[in-house]
TrEMBL record:
Keywords: ATP-binding, GTP-binding, Nucleotide-binding
Keyword flag Heme: no
Lineage, uppermost ranks: Bacteria, Bacillati, Bacillota, Clostridia, Halanaerobiales
UniProt-annotated binding residues for GTP: D62, I63, R64, G65
Binding positions (ATP): G12, M13, S14, G15, A16, G17, K18, T19
The name this protein goes by in its record: RNase adaptor protein RapZ
């Protein structure tokens, strides 16, 4: 059986940013469920524990659950009895900020009907209801004055998976400029300055997937110097892309036809990224074209 999944209970004040938070957890590779009835927690956790594919789980549970939510404390105690490790993230904001957010979005507070429609009374009632749960929280984040980027960084710092590398998937793509630049590329690298194997008769019909072409492309001092600088740049950039919230990055390397130089260097880029434990997809877009 696989090691037990990591569980995070996301809760807190309505309007404090739980929807944004669960999207962030989803970007980080968590299996996410919004508004799960508390009565189903134990059964759901058991399913996750015996599922080999689920490693990290985030559950949003709040007063939208109505009567089900009232049993949440008891259900969490059941998880303790089962020996399940979980953490609670509690999001809150000041009353004036919550009132402003509700007025801006024109959404109805879940407790408004119980408070004669008054937003302030509903917010204060909710604070009282959540007081015990707030006291159990492993992390409390006040979202009154923080941006989505700041919230992402807070969640990353406190609930990130074991390796930051798991937050991003990188596509290493080769292409030919004669067929156009890939529209979905984030970084485009032009390697047409390197000696071209196309003009070597014995290599012309081969591709950068074959050893003879790779040896030819990489044997030149300029190629070696370029790769050193290029890979160093990529190693520097990726953590910064992750910090800004990017979950997929496409690095496109182009030569004239997309068969020799670009394929060779894309293969070497993929090997380098895999050595750093990044998730890599290799796509030789134009390798089959004539």
């Amino acid at each position: 059986m696989n090691s037990r999944p990591k569980f995070v209970i996301v809760t807190g004040m309505s309007g404090a940013g739980k929807t944004q938070a669960i999207r962030i957890f989803e970007d980080f590779g968590y299996f996410c469920i919004d508004n799960l009835p508390s009565a189903l927690i134990s059964k759901f956790v058991e399913l996750c524990i015996y599922n080999q594919q689920i490693n990290n789980v985030a559950l949003v549970m709040d007063i939208r659950g109505g009567e089900f939510f009232e049993d949440l404390i008891e259900e969490l105690a059941n998880l303790d009895d089962l020996g399940v490790n979980y953490e609670i993230l509690f999001l809150e904001a000041t009353t004036d900020v919550l009132v402003r957010r509700y007025k801006e979005t024109r959404r109805r507070h879940p407790l408004a009907a119980q408070c004669g429609g008054r937003i302030i009374d509903a917010i204060e009632k909710e604070r009282t209801m959540l007081e015990e749960l707030r006291g159990m929280a492993n992390k409390i984040i006040d979202t009154s004055d923080i941006s989505t980027k700041d919230l992402r960084e807070e969640i990353l710092a406190n609930f990130g998976v074991n390796a930051i590398n798991e937050f991003i998937t990188i596509t290493a793509m080769s292409f030919g400029f004669k067929y156009g630049i890939p529209l979905d590329a984030d970084l485009v690298i032009d390697v047409r300055f390197l000696p071209n194997p196309y003009y070597v008769p014995s290599l012309k019909k081969l591709t950068g997937l074959q050893t003879e072409v790779q040896e030819y492309v990489l044997k030149w001092p300029i190629a070696e110097k370029f790769m050193d600088k290029f890979l160093d740049l990529i190693k520097f950039l990726i953590p910064h892309y992750i910090k800004e919230g990017k979950t997929h990055l496409t690095i496109a390397i182009g030569c004239t036809g997309g068969k020799h130089r670009s394929v060779t260097l894309t293969e070497k880029l993929a090997e380098f990224l895999e050595s750093l434990d990044y998730k890599v997809i290799v796509d030789h877009r134009d390798i089959e074209k004539k």
